[in-house]
Amino acid sequence: MQVPLLDLVAQYRTIEEDVQGRVKAVVDRQGFIMGPEVAELEREVARLSHAVHGVACASGTDALLLALKALDLKPGDEVVTPSFTFFATAGAVHNAGGTPVFAEIDPVTFNLDPAAAEAAITPRTRAIVVVHLYGQMAPMEGFAELARRRGVVVIEDAAQAIGARRRIGDAWRMAGEIGTTGCYSFFPTKNLGAWGDGGMMVAQDDAVAARLRSLRLHGGTREYYHDEVGTNSRLDTLQAAVLLAKLPRLAGWNARRRELAARYDEAFAGHGAIQAPRTDPANEHTWHQYTIRAERRDALSEHLKARGIGHKVYYPLGLHLQPCFAHLGYRPGALPVTEAATAAVVSLPIYPELTLEQQDAVTAAVLDFYR
Ligand SMILES: Cc1ncc(COP(=O)(O)O)c(C=O)c1O
After folding, report:
1. Peptide bond into 315 cis (omega under 30)
2. Cα(171) to centroid of ligand 1, in Å?
3. How far apart are CA 196 and CA 126, in angstroms?
4. Under a CB-based contact definition with an 8 Å cutoff, are residues 238 and 23 in contact?
């Protein structure tokens, strides 16, 4: 049995009517730019994130870029980020005029470690970008405390973690809630995916949100009057319509991902060559990816490919070792936990429409390899 890594056609079959209805309303109106769906989506995503403001934009990359541009970084200003993340996390720091400083992750959750982030802080540090990798939150209480104590801003890269939450004290806190700005991606493969690129920033502070809105639209609040140089990073109304049709299903989809993760966990429990992913007990995971550490990972990958089992390595090379950041001077061995992760991880199919038979085929193929 062939199993894709993700099956958006299967998802589309379950939502076709709703999404077509929403899209048709936009098409009938021919109102493609900043239609009411954009504002509605901003309200809904802000609500989901326990945030006051939502500011939609053109991609998750732009969400990070605008959140960082709002800090007015000067040349030499540093932003601490993990190296074990998608490129955009650090690319946005560079493009906002800052210098990325890469810090080590927790080997259990793959998320940035607050102690390692603190050790990377220098007098030039302005911010930390915390990534909620694979769909579970990093320990935001630790980063919030660090931000207060060291006077730095915390931005959340929640591109992979919409709807994720963490028990802090006696309350559930959402991905995107605690940082100065929380950044989402609606890339089609995300847990909440558009029909193209899309993103959103959420914030609690009125002034921060106003600045993000201004930067999103050429740096002005009045048409043809510009207080600063911003850009055009709107979310298409059509994309907002698609996302509004999908949003009511997100909680159910994420719950289904948790069921599938629990089945994988059971199948891989106690296996010497496979380390199943672990959830921090304070977290409710959204399983954007189900990522194992596997012995002989590259050979396993070849085996899965031959069996028609979708899988992918997120990410095969830490950002500190990317050619574009060679000028920063990191050498192999600089971040051993990150480098061990890049050599061992592989993600398996975990989309909500995955059938149990398909999942069993994935599990069998993995276990067969080690037999
Ligand atoms: C962790 C992380 N940050 C940022 C992004 C960038 O989002 P986008 O592809 O929407 O620009 C992504 C997704 O691609 C991501 O996974």
Report:
1. yes
2. 28
3. 32
4. yes
Among 59, 61, 95, 313, say which to mutate for ligand 1: greatest number of ligand atoms within 8 Å of CB. 61
What percentage of residues in the chain have a pLDDT greater than 90? 99
pLDDT tens readout for residues 83-137: 999 999 999 999 999 999 999 999 999 999 999 999 999 999 999 999 999 999 9
pLDDT digits 0-9 by tens, 189-248:
999 999 999 999 999 999 999 999 999 999 998 899 999 999 999 999 999 999 999 999
Q: Write out the two tokens for 206.
A: 């009125």
Q: What is the pLDDT of residues 328-340, one digit of tens each?
A: 999 999 999 999 9
Residue type, 325: F
Helix (H) or strand (E) holding 334: none
Strands 78-82 and 99-103, bridge-based pairing: parallel
Cβ < 6 Å from ligand 1: which residues? 59-61, 85-86, 88-89, 131, 157, 159-160, 185, 187, 197, 199
CB neighbour list of residue 270: distance below 8 Å, 6 or more residues apart: none
Distance 364 CA to ligand 1 centre (A): 31
Q: Whose alpha carbon is nearest atom 10 of ligand 1?
A: 60
The first and second tokens of residue 257, run together, are: 């991902």
pTM of this structure: 0.98
Q: What is the pLDDT of residue 221?
A: 86
DSSP 8-state symbol, 150: H
What b/e sequence results for 1-30 when a residue is b if at least 16 CB atoms lie within 10 Å of its CB, and e otherwise?
A: eebebbbeeebeeeeeeebeebbeebeeee
Q: Which residue has the tokens 């930390």?
A: 128
